[in-house]
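User: Could you check the structure of this?
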Amino acid sequence: MSAVNYGSKRRAGGAAHYGTGDWIVQRGSAIIMAIFTIALLLSVIFTSGPLGYEAWSGIFSATWMKFLTFITVISICWHAWIGVRNVFMDYIKPVSIRLALQLFAAAWLIGSAGWAAQVLWRL
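Assistant: Sure, the predicted structure tokens are below.
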């Protein structure tokens, strides 16, 4: 009779072991995006006068808003990475193509976060 391998030594392949952590990160990043949206809407509502360049610049000139905006950008990038990585792992079977797409997506998201930092703080 052959031994059956049950229990903690048994593992599923792919991204199955990321489940709970990814779920928590997706929900946490969504909460950060919601907080940013509410803060931005309140800032716009309570801004007097027309919403031109000066008004938008004034909204984003406060350090707390720059910080909240950058944290939101990081949250969006992390949120997007989890989704894109899971789609690639589920639907792109050739490992070389999947790796190339994941590297491109990671580079794009890191570059986007860097560009956001440059725009926010004029680096």
